[in-house]
Design brief:
Blueprint lengths: L1 E2 L1 E4 L2 E9 L14 H26 L5 H14 L2 H14 L3 H17 L4 H22 L13 E5 L4 H5 L5 E6 L7 H9 L3 E3 L4 H4 L5 E5 L4 E4 L3 H22 L15 E6 L2 H9 L4 E6 L1 H5 L7 H15 L3 E5 L26 H7 L1 H14 L4 E6 L5 H20 L9 E6 L2 H5 L1 H4 L5 E4 L1 H9 L17 H16 L3 E4 L9 H8 L3 E4 L4 H9 L3 H12 L4 H12 L2
Length: 568
């Protein structure tokens, strides 16, 4: 049995199909005719573009327009004058063969992206590998396997799956296992969309597996069984049956309220990064969007998105939610979230530096473009705007003043703006939690960003393996900051949500419920499970449970206590 990361939930048992890509061996050769070599590169590039278009066409039968956008990105990459231009320049200046130039330039680009701190950008290195690998195969005349031809129940075993590979998976593919990868990779995202079980980051699974081996895949626990015995096969079959039964049961809760056994109602919302995600929130019974991460509009672009471009996206999301609340976080870049078209200052600690609201209050032209787009879209639904990384009351006042300025400008121009836009803030800096009662005099609502609140409170970078043990959502210090935030908001009649990962954790829900959290926002796929938990609990009992947790010494004590109490 091998352990990995459960990237797309499900259970499956089938024969192994080892996806072994052609071995690309690149030799450096001196050439005399640079023009002929560049023509060879251009021919391979044209075939690469045609191949990607072919994969996209076949994938269109199973994937949505949003998911197919990855191939548009690949086509843009293949036609990128910078990428291909560097290859041509190397051929001409160094008089080297096209394969060598393509390999050197692609390795440089991949290394640059892989060195970035941000998961999103690190995963984009896989896109460059995908496109340039195909280009190198075309230069060398090597054939890439066609996964769309699989015709019997199969679990694919691979070092990694490219977006092109994943898009070719047909109904015979029961799941896949990879040696590398994470939950934010394209293959994981597509597997979720196709509802194919996937376990990634398993290490040396290829060397442990032969074609035709029976593979048992537990993509709930992140376990891969190679040639399991009859008892394990039977256990997996039972687990699959239970999993599918639970999915059916949870579907019954899609239109149910999130209400405790003694009548206390809360709101379960979804976190999104684009318009397609909003559809998933609705499909999974979300009562709103608790966090729209608008930075992806900027990060997936080669320019600051215009007012019109942003307006169209915000309008689409608000219309998709059909009157349900949508909380939009204004631009949150900096730290590990960079833009290819904007240069950030060099800082010793960019996570604590020029980012989020600090950048927006400095670059007011960028900020106002977004605020104007949001104001214009507000008439299409129930819009809430929240500012990230707020540390002082003055920062919030400044940001809200810019919002009011944009609203007044649009009204003066004769543009309709809703008169019911709530303006709130993220609570992710401990100073904001401590001063919540003062902030709530000015903010309409809070949303607690636990991911950053925890790392700032514990002085522990959550990306660092060495201090990962300090990332403790259940630490009583964190629970007290959350309690302080909720009490401070309620003192002035304001509501509090949570959009950090903690909001969707089954053992955190009882504590947060007891502390009086009004809105829980999480991944769309977590909503129904959280609703089942809420509907099984007594609010009165959870208040007592939460009070006890606040007075404990360690995160371990809290977690053990909650597990014991909720198992009764």
């Amino acid at each position: 049995m091998l352990k990995g990361i459960a990237a797309s939930a499900g259970i499956a048992c089938a024969k192994a199909y080892k996806l072994e890509q052609p071995v690309v061996v690149i030799e450096k050769k001196s050439i005399e005719d640079a023009d002929a070599e560049i023509a060879k590169l251009d021919a391979a590039l044209a075939k690469t573009v045609a191949d990607i278009e072919g994969v996209k066409s076949r994938a269109a039968k199973r994937l949505s327009d949003e998911e197919l956008a990855v191939f548009d990105a690949h086509l843009m990459m293949a036609n990128d004058p910078e990428l291909v231009g560097q290859m041509r320049t190397m051929i001409r200046n160094d008089l080297v063969n096209a394969e060598y130039a393509a390999d050197e330039v692609s390795k440089m680009m991949v290394a640059m992206f892989e060195s970035m701190d941000n998961d999103y950008f690190r995963e984009r290195a896989a896109d460059i590998k995908d496109v340039t690998f195909r280009m190198k195969c075309n230069l060398l005349g090597l054939e890439i396997p066609d996964l769309s031809s699989i015709s019997e129940p199969t679990i694919i075993v691979a070092h990694d799956l490219t977006p092109s590979d994943t898009a070719q998976l047909n109904e015979y593919v029961r799941g896949f296992v990879t040696e590398i990868g994470g939950k934010t990779s394209h293959s994981a995202i597509m597997a979720n969309s196709l509802e194919i079980p996937a376990v990634v980051g398993t290490g040396a699974v290829l060397s442990e597996t032969k074609n035709g081996d029976l593979i048992g895949l537990d993509a709930i626990e992140g376990e891969v069984f190679i040639n399991p015995d009859e008892e394990t096969v039977a256990l997996l079959a039972k687990k699959e049956k239970d999993y599918l039964e639970e999915k059916r049961e949870l579907k019954i809760l899609v239109n149910a309220k999130s209400i405790t056994t003694d009548g206390h109602e809360v709101e379960l919302a979804g976190n999104i990064g684009n318009a397609k995600d909003a559809e998933q929130v609705v499909a999974n019974g979300g009562e709103g969007v608790g966090l729209f991460r608008t930075e992806f509009l900027y990060m997936d672009n080669d320019h600051f998105p215009t007012e019109e471009e942003q307006f169209n996206v915000y309008k689409q999301v608000l219309e998709t939610l059909n009157g349900k609340k949508v909380v939009v976080r204004t631009l949150d870049i900096g730290g590990d979230k960079k833009l290819s078209y904007f240069t950030f200052p060099e800082e010793m600690n960019p996570f604590l530096g020029y980012r989020a609201i600090r950048l927006c209050l400095d670059k007011t032209d960028i900020f106002k473009t977004q605020l104007r787009a949001l104001c214009r879209a507000s008439v299409y639904g129930k819009l809430c705007i929240m500012f990230p990384m707020i540390a002082t009351v003055n920062e919030f006042r400044q940001a809200k003043a810019l919002f009011e300025e944009c609203k007044a400008e649009l009204l003066a121009e004769g543009v309709a703006v809703s008169d019911d836009i709530q303006v709130g803030m993220m609570v992710e800096i401990p100073a904001a939690a401590v001063l919540a009662d003062e902030f709530s005099k000015y903010a309409d609502f809070f949303s607690i960003g636990t991911n950053d609140l925890i790392q700032y409170s514990m002085a522990a970078d959550r990306m660092s393996q060495k201090v990962a043990y300090l990332y403790q959502p259940y630490n009583p210090a964190i629970l007290r900051l959350i309690n302080m935030t909720i009490k401070g908001a309620h003192k002035n009649g304001k509501w509090v949500g949570m959009c950090g990962a903690m909001a969707g954790e089954p053992y955190a829900v009882p504590i947060l419920l007891g502390l009086g959290l009004d809105e829980f926002s999480m991944s769309a796929t977590q909503i129904l499970k959280a609703r089942k938990v809420v509907n099984s609990l007594s609010y009165e009992e959870m208040q007592k449970l939460a009070d006890n947790c606040l007075n404990m010494d360690t995160a371990e004590e809290v977690l053990d206590y909650v597990k014991k109490e909720t198992a009764k």
